[in-house]
Structures are given as structure tokens and as C-alpha cells.
């Protein structure tokens, strides 16, 4: 008799605890919007490396001006921060920081897949800064609900850094280069004269760094998706972009940067003649390779097609407030303080190298000052000017990560197996459509 | 609630012995005791059962449900078998499956054969310093998977890697280990083999030492040579252990993730993309948890079928 009773009791106990867990799990679902609007207390901020350093430099004056709020900036690291934010959002906002630093490649995906995960900032007054940031950025902060969910912090206009010494030795005049046709013939001259390859690319696609391909598309105002979210990965402009990469490769101008630290090693050995990167690289090159002082210059990126435009926004990053934060007002106050005041944002630029998206920041004299690392060139000026020109924001959509994967596969097929760019992109676009249910633009 | 057993413990300790005779109910009417001879085993397994329920059973059931839905955390809706249908039409899934199968067919026999040879060597009484060799053989399996992956990505680096440097000493051209689809697969096979051969060798060694010496002596008397003894005594005696390692290695390979993730990221051009990596990408890169769960169930099904077949084909026949 007794053992039956005890067994039942044990069973009851087990059921009760399992039910409790189930309830707890249910409680998590959709609680993303269940945060609070407290305007005081301690807020935590997640960012990475130099950007986190930049944010920390703002904290002392912010805490002095807002005595009720304490700020803890945590350097979560990149790419670790994406896994951490994704897991946090997927579990209904549990354990997320109050303020999250998010890149344009992730923001639309988060807004799309976790509608309550990132707080509505329009409600807290963000709309008054609609025109304060570089052109084309504001649409990228909007969710499907037509409310702003982020404030732009960093914007990365495209540039082209080149080794002045290699160019000179090969007798190449950078002013004579206006599109990638010119650049390819210049690259061959440089290779012959110096043995240095024009640029580095990860041919294997292990890192899925497709910035170069994307930039060549962005220079033609095209991306993986159009503004309606339709797939344009097989568009003529995309084929053009991949064809340029194929021509560079066929001419032997691409150094393979596959493998940890390879690109950095090639740069430090002076084996890359150009570095086609965005504004953040201004300080990166100067601080990473100080011994190459005076050897680098920057120029406007060559156009993808003859007569095409020579400016593009590579990407941008944002500060957001997590929907589950209980101190959303305090978090917003910090974001507003850090990102809308020229003095603060330029302080972060100085200590973290984060190129500001705030237009008022460009009035600072440092944006037109000569830079010793670049042989006294006013290196920042063209970047600022390219932002005020016809720069357009890109529609990354919630399916960017998938598009990136298929584009990277297509590029590897072209570089490693000699595939035809148009055929490789056609296959990639079809797979992207099959996996996302999106249509291809006609 | 949790205090109850300990409160009762002193009172019940002695009568519990009599509990089995059916006396307990009468001695203390109306007072049900938690600690009886039959309940204690249940209490002992309770932590494991609860742990299983929370960390295994719940995710298993929940992911089955998720695999039948689409959408996001807040707005998940039922779509029936759509994800599974999508799976069958997804070329990348088939690529991943093909890669996994290829690694399975090439790597598992290679590694287990190697492990058996190593075990035979370690078991030989003619080898000096046996404990040292055993330690050396086993040490790789103590290395963390990611650490091993990172270490090999340095060793296999095309321009600055150790392996290409060693090859160059013999006049062999640099191999683009991680950059060409073929060699990247070889690289992954190399890392897994390095990592798990010693582990399997130690299991075989234990098996070898369990084979009665009399069998070998009798065979010798009957005139059997070393190869004959290996085929007719060692292999049949090791059969259950061989089965164990084959099944474990098969499951391990089907779930292969860390090494290709760190070494190649699944590339180049998906040459080393495994099913588990593809699953991870769908869940944590594309936030497509429904599809990722469907992938997990497809993989579980494959593991179950393969495991069943192996046990059927290699198991003891009664």
C-alpha cells in the first residue's frame, strides 16, 4: 500500500514542478514589450572594442549631468555580441542590457523577427532628430510600425586607401583613375613594377566578408534587395560587380586573405597596394601600422561603371533600447546625450574611431585637418563630402544574413572554380528566393 | 516541501526496515511516510529525471512544436509540415548531408582502423615506456574542440602554416589546405582523426586486455600465425566494442560542428558545411528557428535509422 502512495506523491511532485517550469517558460513568451519606463537607476550598455571605449568616455559627463542615472558600459566583443543579443531577444528579452549597440546588418533582422524586442524611440521623442543625421540613414531606423527604433551613431562612407609609394614606383597617377577599369590597368602596372597585388579578398568565403562586392553594387545604387525587399542579387549591376572581381582575379591582382590574421599580415608587409574600406579605416591604418606613416593616401572610390557615382555608404551602426528594459527613459536619455551632441560624439570619434553619423559633428575642425599618417592629406574631408552628396541607405532587410551567405558562395565559385558570374548569381538568387519566400525583382 | 523528507528521516529510518512487511501503515495511521524502501530509489533518481525533463524532454518536445511553425518569438504560427517540405527542396541541406556522409564514410573507418592499430601497438608487451605512449595517444582527446580547431587553422595556414613549412622541407609545393574544396575536407578529416583516434584506441586497448590469453595460447598450439589469431580471435572478441565505437563515431560525425565551424566556416563554397552547422546558421544567423528545428528532427531521424542499422548488422546474433 505504502509504496503506491509514495509513488503517486512523487509523481504529483514531478508534475507540479514540470508545470511550474512550463508556466515559467510561457511567462517568457512575448514579454519583450513588458519593460518599464523608469528614468533613473543603473543602466547597462552592450557594445564592442573601440566603440565601447568611446562610449565610456562619455559616461563621466553624462553621470554628472544626470545624477539619478549610473551607466555601465560593457565590451561584449564582436561578433560575440550578436549571439548574445539574438539569444536574449529569442528568450523574450531576458538578460539583455538596457542599451544595445547594433549594426545595420542586424538591425532590420531583429526588428523583423522580434517586433517587441527593440523599444519604440519615437514614443520617447526620437523623431525630432529625423534630419540631424547623414542623408539616407533615417529610413534604416524605422520598423514596420513606422516608428523609430534606433538612433544612428556611426556611418561608414566608402573610401579607397592606397600605397602612395607603390603607385609612384609604378608611375600610376591616382587622379587618372575614375572607375574600376582604370584601376585594373593600374593594378597590373603596379604588380609588374613592385610585385605587390592590388587588393586582398577572402577567396574561400570563410569570413563571409562581402563588403567589396557589396560596395561595387552600392556604387550602382543596388544591393541584394531593392527598397521593396525584392531580390536583386542577379541584377545586371550585381553581375557587373562580380565580373569586376573576376577580372581582378584573372589578372592576378587579388591576394587571398583567407585565414586568421592574413590580411593584417599582408598589410603590415606592404603587400597590398590598396585597401578599399570605409571611413573607420582612417584611424585603423594609422594606429595599427604606425611604421607605415607617410606611405598611405586616400581617394574617392573608383566608380563601378564608367561615369558612375563615386560615393557609397558601406554600413552604419546604431544605439537602441531593448524592449525588455525597465529603465527605458534613462536609457533613452543616455543615447540622446551620446549621439546628438557634437561635443560628445566627437569625443567618441577621437577615442573610439567611430565615424559620426550626426551632421553637426562635421563642423569640428578636425574633419578638415591634415593627417600626418597620410602625408598631411586632409583625409577626412572627402568622406564628409561624399556623405552630403547623393549617398543612399541600403535596404538590408531581415534576410541579409542569408543573402550574404549565397553571395559569398557565388563569389567563391567564381574565384576558386572559375564559374561564370551571371550563372553563379542566378543560382544564388534562386536559392535565396526559395529560402526566404521573397520574389526576385524583374 | 523539500524539507519534509529530512524532517521525517530520523523517525522513519528504523521502521522503514519493517515497511516491506506491510507493518508501517498500521504503526502510524494517517501519517504517510516519504522515505520507504520503495520510494528511496525514486528519490535518488529524481534529480536525474528532473534534469532530463527540464533540459532534454522539454526542448525535445518544444522543438518538435517549433518545427511545425514559422515566424518569430511573439508571432509564431502553425504551418504543418511546410518546413519539412522546404527541407526536401533545399539544395544546401542536401549539400550538407552529402558532406556529412562523405566525412562519415571516409573518416570513421580510417580513424577506427588507425585506433585499432595503435591499440595493438600499445597492448604489445614488447613496447617500452607503454604508459608514456598511452598518455601521448590519449592527450589530443583532452583538448577542447574549439582550441583544436584554432590550433589547426594556424597549422594549416597556407602561407605561414607549420604543415606547409614541413612539406616544403621535402620539396612539396604549398597546399591550399583550407582554401580549396578538396583539401578543406581533408583538413577537417585530419583534425577529427587527430582528436578522436586516441580516445578510440584507449577503448580498444581496454577491450584487448579483456581477451583471455588462453585463447591465444590454444591457437598458437594449434599452429595459428599472428594474422590468423588476429582475424579469428581478436576481431570476434572485440566485436561488441567495435560496435560501440562505430555507433558513437557515427553519431559524433553526424553532429559534427566545432571543427568545420572554426576551421572553414563551412566553406569554401559549402565543401565542409555539415548538417549541424547549417542548423546553427538557420537558428542563430537567420533567426529561422522553425526551420532549424525541422533540420534537427531530420538529423535525429537519420541518426536513429543509422544507429539501428548498425546495431542490426553488427550486433550479436543469437
Map the helices and strands.
The complex is a heterodimer of chains A (442) and B (318).
Chain A: H1 2-28, E1 41-47, H2 49-56, H3 59-65, E2 69-75, H4 80-90, E3 99-103, H5 107-113, E4 151-157, E5 160-163, H6 164-169, H7 180-194, E6 199-201, H8 211-218, H9 236-250, E7 254-256, H10 262-268, E8 274-275, H11 281-288, E9 296-299, E10 313-321, H12 328-340, H13 342-352, H14 381-388, H15 400-417, H16 421-436
Parallel strand pairs in A: 1-2, 1-3, 6-7
Antiparallel strand pairs in A: 3-10, 4-10, 5-8, 5-9
Chain B: H1 4-13, H2 15-19, H3 24-27, H4 39-67, E1 69-70, E2 77-78, H5 82-88, H6 91-123, H7 130-138, H8 145-155, H9 162-169, H10 181-209, H11 213-221, H12 226-254, H13 258-263, H14 275-285, H15 289-314
Antiparallel strand pairs in B: 1-2
Walk me through this protein's architecture.
With 442 residues, chain A is of the alpha/beta class. Chain A has two domains: 5-156 and 316-377, Periplasmic binding protein-like II (D-Maltodextrin-Binding Protein, domain 2, 3-Layer(aba) Sandwich); 157-312 and 394-436, Periplasmic binding protein-like II (D-Maltodextrin-Binding Protein, domain 2), CATH 3.40.190.10. Helix content of chain A is 42%, strand content 12%. Chain A has 16 helices and ten strands. In chain A, strands 2-1-3-10-4 form a five-stranded mixed β-sheet. Chain A has a three-stranded antiparallel β-sheet with strand order 8-5-9. Chain A is globular and about 65 Å long. Residues 1-33 of chain A have low confidence and may be disordered. The longest helix of chain B has 33 residues, at 91-123. In chain B, strands 1-2 form a two-stranded antiparallel sheet. In chain B, 71% of the residues lie in helices and 1% in strands. Chain B has a domain at 99-314: Orthogonal Bundle (MetI-like fold), CATH 1.10.3720.10. Chain B is mainly α. Chain B has helices spanning 4-13, 15-19, 24-27, 39-67, 82-88, 91-123, 130-138, 145-155, 162-169, 181-209, 213-221, 226-254, 258-263, 275-285, 289-314, and strands at residues 69-70, 77-78. In chain B, α12 (226-254) packs antiparallel against α15 (289-314). Chain B starts with a helix and ends with a helix. Classes of the chains: A alpha/beta (442), B mainly alpha (318). At the A-B interface, α1, α4, α5, α15 and α16 of A face α4, α8 and α14 of B.
Amino acid at each position: 500500500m505504502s509504496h503506491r502512495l509514495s509513488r503517486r506523491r512523487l509523481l504529483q511532485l514531478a508534475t507540479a514542478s514540470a508545470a511550474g517550469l512550463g508556466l515559467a517558460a510561457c511567462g517568457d513568451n512575448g514579454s519583450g514589450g513588458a519593460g518599464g519606463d523608469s528614468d533613473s537607476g543603473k543602466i547597462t550598455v552592450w557594445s564592442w572594442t573601440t566603440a565601447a571605449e568611446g562610449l565610456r568616455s562619455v559616461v563621466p559627463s553624462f553621470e554628472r549631468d544626470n545624477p539619478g542615472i549610473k551607466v555601465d558600459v560593457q565590451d561584449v566583443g564582436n561578433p560575440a555580441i550578436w549571439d548574445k543579443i539574438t539569444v536574449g531577444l529569442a528568450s523574450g528579452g531576458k538578460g539583455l542590457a538596457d542599451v544595445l549597440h547594433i549594426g545595420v546588418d542586424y538591425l532590420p533582422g531583429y526588428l523583423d523577427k522580434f517586433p517587441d524586442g527593440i523599444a519604440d524611440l519615437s514614443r520617447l521623442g526620437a523623431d525630432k532628430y529625423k534630419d540631424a543625421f547623414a542623408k539616407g540613414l533615417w529610413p534604416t531606423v524605422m520598423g514596420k510600425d513606422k516608428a523609430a527604433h534606433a538612433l544612428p551613431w556611426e556611418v561608414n562612407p566608402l573610401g579607397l586607401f592606397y600605397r602612395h609609394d607603390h603607385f609612384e614606383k609604378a608611375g600610376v597617377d591616382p587622379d587618372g583613375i575614375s572607375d574600376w577599369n582604370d584601376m585594373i590597368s593600374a593594378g597590373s602596372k603596379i604588380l609588374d613594377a613592385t610585385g605587390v597585388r592590388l587588393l586582398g579578398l577572402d577567396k574561400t568565403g570563410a569570413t563571409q566578408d562581402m563588403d567589396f562586392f557589396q560596395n561595387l553594387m552600392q556604387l550602382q545604387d543596388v544591393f541584394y534587395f531593392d527598397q521593396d525587399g525584392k531580390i536583386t542579387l542577379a541584377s545586371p549591376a550585381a553581375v557587373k560587380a562580380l565580373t569586376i572581381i573576376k577580372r581582378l582575379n584573372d589578372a592576378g591582382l587579388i591576394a587571398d586573405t583567407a585565414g586568421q590574421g592574413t590580411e593584417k599580415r599582408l598589410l603590415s608587409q606592404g603587400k597590398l597596394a590598396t585597401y578599399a574600406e570605409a571611413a573607420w579605416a582612417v584611424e585603423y591604418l594609422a594606429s595599427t601600422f604606425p611604421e607605415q606613416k607617410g606611405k598611405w593616401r586616400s581617394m574617392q572610390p573608383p566608380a563601378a561603371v564608367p561615369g558612375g557615382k563615386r560615393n557609397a555608404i558601406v554600413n552604419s551602426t546604431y544605439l537602441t533600447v531593448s524592449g525588455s528594459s525597465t529603465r527605458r527613459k534613462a536609457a533613452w536619455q543616455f543615447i540622446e546625450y551620446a549621439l546628438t551632441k557634437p561635443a560628445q560624439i566627437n569625443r567618441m570619434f577621437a577615442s573610439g574611431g567611430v565615424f559620426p553619423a550626426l551632421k553637426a559633428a562635421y563642423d569640428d575642425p578636425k574633419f578638415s585637418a591634415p593627417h600626418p599618417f597620410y602625408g598631411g592629406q586632409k583625409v577626412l574631408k572627402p568622406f564628409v563630402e561624399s556623405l552630403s552628396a547623393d549617398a543612399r541607405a541600403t535596404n538590408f532587410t531581415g534576410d541579409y544574413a542569408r543573402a550574404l551567405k549565397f553571395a559569398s558562395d557565388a563569389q567563391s565559385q567564381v574565384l576558386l572554380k572559375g564559374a561564370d558570374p551571371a550563372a553563379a548569381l542566378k543560382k544564388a538568387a534562386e536559392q535565396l528566393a526559395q529560402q526566404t519566400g521573397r520574389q526576385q525583382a524583374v | 516541501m523539500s524539507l519534509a523528507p529530512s524532517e521525517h528521516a530520523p523517525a522513519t529510518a528504523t521502521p522503514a526496515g519493517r515497511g516491506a512487511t506491510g507493518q508501517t501503515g498500521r504503526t502510524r495511521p494517517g501519517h504517510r511516510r516519504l522515505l520507504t524502501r520503495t520510494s528511496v530509489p525514486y528519490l535518488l533518481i529524481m534529480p536525474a529525471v528532473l534534469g532530463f525533463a527540464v533540459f532534454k524532454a522539454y526542448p525535445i518536445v518544444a522543438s518538435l512544436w517549433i518545427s511545425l511553425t514559422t515566424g518569430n518569438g511573439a508571432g509564431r504560427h502553425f504551418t504543418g509540415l511546410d518546413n519539412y517540405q522546404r527541407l526536401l527542396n533545399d539544395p544546401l541541406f542536401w549539400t550538407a548531408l552529402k558532406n556529412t556522409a562523405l566525412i562519415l564514410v571516409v573518416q570513421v573507418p580510417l580513424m577506427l582502423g588507425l585506433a585499432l592499430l595503435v591499440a595493438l601497438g600499445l597492448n604489445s608487451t614488447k613496447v617500452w615506456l607503454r604508459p608514456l605512449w598511452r598518455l601521448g595517444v590519449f592527450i589530443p582527446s583532452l583538448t577542447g574542440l574549439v582550441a583544436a580547431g584554432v590550433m589547426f587553422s594556424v597549422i594549416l595556414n597556407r602561407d605561414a602554416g607549420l604543415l606547409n613549412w614541413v612539406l616544403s622541407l621535402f620539396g612539396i609545393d604549398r597546399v591550399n589546405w583550407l582554401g580549396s574544396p578538396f583539401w578543406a575536407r581533408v583538413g577537417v578529416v585530419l583534425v577529427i582523426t587527430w582528436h578522436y583516434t586516441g580516445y578510440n584506441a584507449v577503448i580498444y586497448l581496454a577491450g584487448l586486455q579483456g581477451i583471455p590469453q588462453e585463447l591465444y595460447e590454444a591457437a598458437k598450439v594449434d599452429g595459428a600465425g599472428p594474422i590468423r589469431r588476429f582475424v579469428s580471435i581478436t576481431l570476434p572478441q572485440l566485436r561488441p566494442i567495435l560496435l560501440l565505437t562505430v555507433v558513437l563515431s557515427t553519431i559524433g560525425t553526424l553532429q559534427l560542428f566545432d571543427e568545420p565551424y572554426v576551421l572553414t566556416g563551412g566553406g569554401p563554397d559549402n565543401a565542409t558545411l555539415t548538417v549541424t552547422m547549417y542548423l546553427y546558421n538557420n537558428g542563430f544567423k537567420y533567426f529561422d528557428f522553425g526551420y532549424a528545428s525541422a533540420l534537427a528532427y531530420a538529423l535525429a531521424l537519420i541518426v536513429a535509422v543509422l544507429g539501428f542499422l548498425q546495431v542490426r548488422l553488427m550486433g550479436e546474433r543469437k
